[in-house]
Design brief:
701 residues, alpha+beta, five-stranded antiparallel β-sheet, five-stranded mixed beta barrel
């Protein structure tokens, strides 16, 4: 389990008298020397921040924190307009954080707060900061009079960090630098730090990786212990009695052109009107043993972080790109889910087992599609894959139809990819096209994930599920209100909401200019999918039982799914496992869910920074866009060509406008602007450092 200041505070909340260090270590199952040092260091920080007191040889929460039972723990989410929200840990509605409080907070900080009423509205008053999200960050070195500051980049709330003059003079002004924060901002106290790395004057892909990695505290290197362990792992693959030898089978991988590691391979056989599908997954758990240095590091990371032109792998390179990657013409250990599927998309038989495979080809998505469509040069290059791919197309269409029938929601949001020149500089953004080949692999992975999850649930074993809760009724009502304001004739839900209700609303917008906006609004209505040891189903997929089994190279949750499956098929679950595993799996599930959200935010941020770099050369040019947000201060416009938002300030619009909050529109004397309207805008200014795009309305389309 990861031990943090916040975790210690949670533990001490339930203690009536001082707790000894030994008791804290025991509560978190910590027994190593380095663990003891870490806990001591965290306790010292809590003492320094006046959260914890040292009393009678033990530790106890400060009285006012202990006594305030109404204190709310949560994560800070900053908004570019200067305010923020407290995302409550208890799942209750978010609380508004006013700008005056946000001046001393960073996006992602973990805090304790009180709920206050101000002018009739609920908001959060911060009592204590438990955990600072940002430890090191990238900024620009600036001089103000005789003093030097690092202005942090890519933070929605602007922060500047004071640095010592003598130290600052070692670097050129306006250089990008990495600064370690030694003191955080507080009322009447400025933030202070020291420069630990010079990145130069140009913001290239390397600088972007540093900016994002520092902002989200992502690991840039693997520990020497993990690398040493990986190097010692044997490269010889042996076919043993407990593994099926499938090396003669025609299986193959289908991945993006840029893929460096290959988690999954697929194979298929037609049996009458049924299909026997094999989903082979890299057997990472064969190499990564629980408690090893590699395993501990993978737990902390949670997943691989994909930044432009750089991947921060969950596993050391030797595992991620070599031993575990299902490379063509090389024997690999795999974990196989074999399924017999009928013409209605039902799994009528299945088997899950360890295997040895040998992929016969490494296809890109475009090559797979080309073979399906009958391109002669590809059929000639891969004659042995023509028949299997035709069968895969047939089966995927059956599975898609079955999934749609049960109410699975297709959020299929538009995606984009950055194009780089030979020097690694971004020069264009193009749409990332998903086609039939993508859907084939997606459907096969989904059916394998479901089959594995159902097997474990049926047998009552402890497990990690991928769950997606139903959205709250008030959020669905707000979504329906938005659709009505866009001119759609929609019905309001009665009491309960199922996935078919959301699916039908999305279908209304298919083929319209606002289709992507409607999909985005529907997605925003949903709760986030997460990992859990308790199966509550997956609302978005309309699945009663789901997990993540198919990507253990890049997701830690999948590694544990494999471990638990192996215990199940070998019948090695003990009474002790049945009693103790649920608690351990809950900790792992929470960590994986949290790190997944960090990965999503970091990857989105990195893409946006590079898009801004490209758009800097487009100032003065016009682009089509769609209104994605209507606020009292202006219109947020998504530039469709680049899938990024900019702002048209209200004072730049022709005439005077009144803000209609309920119907999400600005109403003027001669025209009005509402959510979903198409417009033509000119790019006026692009500020890479603050991530802001200023736009001017050219015309309403």
């Amino acid at each position: 389990m990861e031990i943090t200041q916040a975790a210690i505070v949670d533990f001490l909340k339930n203690q009536k008298k001082p707790v000894y260090l030994k008791q804290i270590l025991k509560a978190f199952n910590l027994d190593k020397k380095e663990d003891k040092k870490l806990v001591r260091r965290l306790l010292r920080k809590l003492q320094k921040n006046k959260i914890v007191l040292y009393k009678n040889g033990g530790y106890i929460l400060k009285r006012e924190i202990q006594e305030k039972e109404n204190l709310i723990k949560g994560k800070v989410e900053a908004h570019e307009s200067g305010f923020g929200f407290l995302i409550r840990e208890d799942g209750e509605p978010d609380l508004f954080i006013p700008p005056i409080e946000m001046r001393y907070l960073f996006d992602g900080d973990i805090v304790l707060a009180e709920e206050k009423i101000y002018r009739g509205k609920k908001e959060a008053k911060i009592v204590k900061v438990l955990e600072r999200r940002v430890k090191t960050a990238v900024g620009k070195l600036k001089q103000e009079g005789n003093r030097y500051f690092v202005y942090l980049l890519d933070f929605v709330i602007p922060h500047k960090i004071y640095v010592d003059k003598k130290e600052a003079k070692k670097y050129e002004l306006d250089n990008y630098v990495v600064v370690e924060i030694l003191r955080y901002p507080e009322p009447k106290v400025e933030a202070k730090g020291r420069i630990i790395k010079d990145l130069g004057k140009v913001k290239n892909t390397q600088t972007v990786a540093e900016i994002v990695a520092r902002k989200y505290d992502l690991p840039l290197t693997h520990s020497p212990e993990a690398i040493k362990e990986a190097e010692k792992l044997p490269s010889v693959v042996k076919i043993t009695k407990n593994r099926k030898d499938l090396t003669k089978q025609i299986c193959f991988t289908i991945d993006p052109e840029s893929a460096r590691d290959h988690d999954d391979a697929v194979a298929i056989e037609k049996e009458g009107d049924k299909y026997r599908l094999y989903v082979h997954i890299a057997d990472v758990s064969h190499y990564v043993k629980e408690g090893s240095a590699i395993d501990k590091e993978a737990f902390q990371r949670g997943n691989t972080y994909y930044l432009p032109e750089r991947a921060l792998h969950m596993l050391p390179e030797r595992l991620a790109s070599q031993l575990c990657s299902l490379k063509p013409r090389e024997k690999r250990y795999a974990f196989t889910c074999e399924m017999l599927i009928d013409k209605k998309g039902n799994v009528v038989e299945y088997d899950i087992y360890e295997s040895v495979i040998e992929s016969k080809a490494k296809l890109t998505y475009d090559q797979a599609l080309g073979i399906i469509l009958g391109q002669p040069e590809l059929e000639k290059a891969f004659p042995y894959l023509v028949k299997p791919l035709k069968h895969m197309k047939e089966l995927a269409e059956i599975l898609m139809k079955a999934k749609e029938k049960r109410g699975s929601i297709d959020f299929d949001m538009p995606e984009s990819q950055i194009l780089f020149d030979q020097y690694g500089n971004p020069y264009d953004v193009v749409p990332y096209e998903r086609h039939l080949a993508h859907r084939i692999i997606e459907e096969f992975m989904i059916i394998a994930n479901e089959t594995v999850a159902k097997h474990m649930e049926k047998n009552g074993y402890p497990f990690i599920y991928r769950v997606h809760e139903k959205p709250k009724l008030e959020k669905v009502m707000a979504f329906v209100d938005l659709m009505a304001s866009l001119g759609y004739k929609v019905e309001y839900p009665k009491k309960d909401v199922d996935s078919k209700f959301i699916q039908k609303i999305i279908e209304m917008a298919v083929g319209t200019p606002e289709e992507s906006l409607v999909r985005f609004l529907a997605l925003r209505t949903m709760k986030q999918a997460r990992y859990s040891p308790e199966n509550i189903g997956h609302f978005g997929l309309a699945s009663e039982c789901y997990t993540h089994f198919t990507s253990p190279i890049r997701r830690y949750a999948d590694v544990w799914v494999h471990r638990l499956l192996k215990k199940a098929i070998k019948k090695k679950f003990t009474k002790k496992d049945m009693e103790e595993l649920p608690k351990k799996l809950d900790i792992i599930a929470k960590q994986c869910s949290e790190r997944e959200r960090v990965a999503d935010d970091a990857e989105r941020d990195a893409l946006d920074i590079l898009k801004l770099r490209i758009l800097k050369d487009k100032v003065g040019e016009n682009f089509e866009g769609i209104i994605t947000g209507v606020m009292a201060f202006g219109l947020f416009i998504e530039i469709e060509r680049y899938i990024i938002d900019g702002l048209v300030p209200i004072d730049s619009l022709p005439g005077k406008f009144k803000y209609d909050e309920k119907n999400h529109q600005l109403i003027g004397d001669k025209m009005k602007f509402r959510l979903g309207d198409k417009v033509l805008v000119e790019i006026v200014k692009v500020d890479e450092d603050t991530k802001r795009i200023d736009l001017k309305l050219v015309e309403k389309l």
